[in-house]
Amino acid sequence: MGRKWNNIKDKKAQKDKNTSRIYAKFGREIYVAAKSGEPDPESNQNLKFVLEKAKTYSVPKHIIDRAIEKAKGGSEENFDELRYEGFGPSGSMLIVDALTNNVNRTASDVRAAFGKNGGNMGVSGSVAYMFNNTAVFAFKDKSSDEIFEVLLEADLDVRDVIDEEELTIVYAEPDQFSQVQQVLKENGVEDFEVAELSMLAQSEVSLSDEDLETFEKLVDAIEDLEDVQQVFHNVDL
Prior knowledge:
About 40% of the residues lie in helices and about 25% in strands. It is of the alpha+beta class. Helix 2 (about 20-35) packs antiparallel against helix 3 (about 45-55) and helix 2 (about 20-35) packs parallel to helix 4 (about 60-70). It holds the Pfam family TACO1_YebC_N.
């Protein structure tokens, strides 16, 4: 599978890192989801998914409400969903997802972040084929054996269920997200450490200390960009 526990550690670490930036990114994502259909999560699956993800990052209610109200108010602001692919040092690969109201600006900013920090942009498809789009859930207080049986009884054949450092982690097909989450909730899982779609690398690379320092600066520079929502990579941290 690749990038299992490291992916979860990355996500958990983000909870304590620059929360104002994370909240701003969620505000944009919630607005876009609410504007894409009805501003009601019960009738808008995209919005429901984003709100479930926002919960795991402890996004404050006022930020969520403000973004939904902005969508209800008929704001004319529009965003494009973009994906960039690129390379860092020593075989490291990155996928960058963005939401932008200025495609040229975002492309220029992402390219500059790569170029100034030891990386380079690739063409579409140059990296993504090495990653799998995966629904990921992580939570406490339930064993992998228990959860595997529950999912089996619900006729859900997921990719994997593992125990890792006090967490049970479920990897499923992207289109199973809602079904798996509903079954987990029905069987006593109330709080998720992770509940989202992720691009997981099929294999990981280990970097030397020097290359790892360069790579981390590259990721930080990209994540600092206003339009960037998420960065996925294949480095074993």
